[in-house]
Design a protein that fits this description.
alpha/beta; five-stranded mixed sheet; 12 strands; RNA-binding
Length: 426
RNA sequence: GGGUCGGUGCCCGAGUGGUUAAUGGGGGCGGACUGUAAAUCCGCUGGCUCUGCCUACGUUGGUUCAAAUCCAACCCGGCCCA
């Protein structure tokens, strides 16, 4: 049982309501075992974006551990709450999403978690009967009427809401807070009531929300859930938390090369955290050299998602990409093709770059050429006004921007129009 | 509803009548360098087949030879009062 909780952060002094402690959790586990009743472990996720990233996977790994121990994971797709937006960690009101967008996101989430795959390969166990319930909170939230909503609102106070750090900061700094944002903690707390949760998993930033769930359960005559708050994964920058909106994420569904090369360059300071939170590797058994540690970490995490073969291939590709940047080597076949069909000749160099889509605008192209960042078949282009008379003289040549961006020019229309580059921006 | 302050480029934030797409920071892109696509240093950062021409400082009008800068109305937000 100890293995289940390598780093539990039990809810303590959680504002309103009593605290839960790890002893109390342990006793409830024992009690559940005696009764032969699995615990209902809640994890809520709002389908606000289309990607699940490594930061989320800490929670899912823990949820999976509960499944493997015989408990019931209750995964709540916050299709209703997503439309409000969790104010946690936000400095501004979220844009409200439409029902269609939320529904589409929800579908991709389940696929990313491994729905339909054997449990050995998936993040959650979708196979074993009784180990997983997937619920959408619109089931019970969409039908709330005004009297019920008012009852919910009566359970908390403005003071309690403003005690929440994010609200306090925004209120203090004069950033607007819409009233509906106060509803978010209450609604997601009501989820705990609706599914009769014994335990809720969340990041440490979810303390307020988890505590709110306890209050609501008590109000509705249920035994309050325990909160297990797990560490927040730092993002690729090594400072801020991993978050889609900060652009410092690694998505679970990213291709092996992209995943490996992002992980390989995280700051040394967070490598140990990644190893601890995302892998089962033993820190002591790893090499001392920080560079090798990074590589081992990147390899292992890539392996978890894509298998050992793909991970090793990604490692090799990453090395060759950095090393021989000429494109003539290993990655030559992967260079995206750009058609010259829509380019009007004669074409000046800066116009060519924008017409082919390698630069966002012709002005940017001009600057890049002047900055010395553009090469044609390995030769640096010096003059943005250099003119090319016909498509034929460019056919088959490779245009390069910086170290990472390549386009093979083709006179005829290509079969695949400009696929995004490896390492391109999200 | 009243009073008051404010809305500037991807983001934050200077600028309060006049050479110039508009200080600075962040982010991004490029260059050099390196154990890494890290760190550091340097350059660039509105658009246009561009030696010039467009479009820009919440919106729409107005004053002026000239406005992001002055005036009016409107929209949006903060604070105080109700």
């Amino acid at each position: 049982m100890a293995d289940l909780f390598p780093a539990p952060r039990p809810l303590s002094q959680a504002g309103p309501g009593e605290a839960s402690s790890s002893e109390a959790l342990a006793s409830r586990l024992v009690e559940a075992g005696r009764q032969g009743r699995p615990l209902r472990v809640k994890l809520g996720i709002d389908p606000t974006g289309s990607d699940i990233h490594l930061g989320h996977s800490i929670l899912f790994r823990k949820l999976r551990a509960f499944q493997d121990a015989g408990h019931t994971a209750v995964l709540i797709i916050g299709d209703f709450t997503a439309r409000i937006g969790d104010p946690t960690g936000k400095s501004a009101t979220r844009v409200q999403l439409t029902a269609e967008v939320v529904a589409a996101n929800a579908r991709t989430y389940l696929a990313q978690l491994g729905q339909g795959q054997p449990k050995e390969l998936s993040l959650l166990d979708f196979e074993t009967p009784g180990r997983l319930e997937v619920r959408r909170n619109s089931e019970w939230l969409a039908g709330l009427d005004l009297p019920q909503t008012i009852e919910l609102l009566g359970i908390s106070t403005v003071g309690q809401m403003l005690a929440k750090e994010d609200f306090a900061n925004r209120y203090g700094s004069g950033t607007p807070i819409s009233l509906h944002e106060f509803l978010y903690p209450l609604l997601q707390g009501y989820d705990s009531v609706a599914i009769a949760a014994d335990l809720e998993l969340g990041g440490t930033d979810q303390k307020f929300n988890v505590a709110m769930g306890r209050d609501l359960q008590r109000h509705f005559g249920q035994r309050p859930q325990f909160g297990m708050l797990l560490p927040i994964l730092p993002g690729l920058d090594g400072v801020l938390k991993m978050s889609k909106s900060l652009g410092n994420t690694v998505g679970l569904q990213e291709d092996p090369l992209s995943m490996y090369s992002k992980l390989e360059k995280v700051p040394d300071g967070v490598v140990a955290e990644y190893l601890t939170l995302l892998t089962d590797l033993d820190l002591a058994s790893l090499p001392e050299n920080p560079r090798e540690r990074q590589r081992a970490m990147a390899l292992e995490i890539t392996r978890q998602r894509h298998g050992a073969g793909a991970a090793l291939a990604a490692q090799a590709d990453a090395a060759s990409l950095v090393g021989g940047a000429q494109g003539a080597g290993a990655a030559a076949a992967e260079v995206p093709v750009a058609s010259l069909a829509d380019v009007n000749f004669p074409a000046k160099a800066f116009y060519l770059l924008s017409a082919v889509g390698i630069c966002a605008s012709s002005s940017e192209a001009r600057r890049q050429i002047q900055g010395g960042g553009v090469k044609l078949d390995g030769d640096k282009l010096a003059d943005p006004n250099q003119e090319f008379a016909t498509a034929a003289e460019l056919d088959g040549k490779v245009l390069q921007l910086g170290k990472k961006t390549f386009r093979r020019l083709v006179a005829a229309a290509p079969a695949v129009p400009g696929a995004p580059l490896q390492g391109a921006q999200p």
